[in-house]
């Protein structure tokens, strides 16, 4: 069962990569066209999946932590809340809350509040730059400001 999730992401990444070749751009250069980012993201995903699979092969089978079974449920609830709050709270606040919720669910830097807040802000800002600045997507704002 420990290989089920990486296998799922492997299949999903392969489908995603295959679909990128259906994208047609106006530029003849590959790295300037619309396929460059999805192909780069797929390559990164393959590399990260390889790391995960190698770690799982090396890791001794240890019993799951008591909260591990609930994590997928918490992630689904956090994602549902994010979808519901995205429009009314705007991108900035809703994404910051969502990222923070995921960090808490996966216990990432929860003992270090300053690092926790800094990482949450960096992730939120990174995706803002990616979508709003690079891709030009209009994201909802809180009170027309954030």
UniProtKB/TrEMBL annotation:
Residues 5-140 form the DUF1468 domain. InterPro entries: DUF1468. The chain crosses the membrane at residues 36-57, 69-85, 115-137. The keyword Membrane applies. Keywords: Membrane, Transmembrane, Transmembrane helix. It comes from the Bacteria. The keyword Secreted does not apply. This is Tripartite tricarboxylate transporter TctB family protein.
């Amino acid at each position: 069962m420990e290989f089920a999730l990486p296998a799922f992401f492997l299949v999903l990444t392969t489908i995603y990569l295959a679909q990128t070749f259906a994208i047609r751009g106006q530029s003849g250069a590959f790295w300037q066209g619309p396929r460059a980012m999805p192909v780069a993201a797929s390559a990164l995903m393959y590399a990260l999946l390889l790391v995960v699979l190698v770690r799982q092969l090396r890791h001794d089978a240890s019993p799951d932590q008591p909260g591990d079974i609930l994590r997928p449920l918490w992630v689904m609830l956090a994602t549902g809340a994010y979808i519901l709050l995205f429009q009314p709270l705007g991108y900035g606040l809703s994404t910051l809350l969502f990222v923070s919720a995921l960090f808490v669910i996966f216990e990432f830097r929860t003992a270090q509040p300053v690092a926790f807040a800094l990482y949450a802000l960096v992730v939120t800002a990174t995706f803002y730059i990616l979508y709003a600045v690079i891709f030009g997507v209009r994201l909802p704002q809180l009170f027309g400001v954030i």
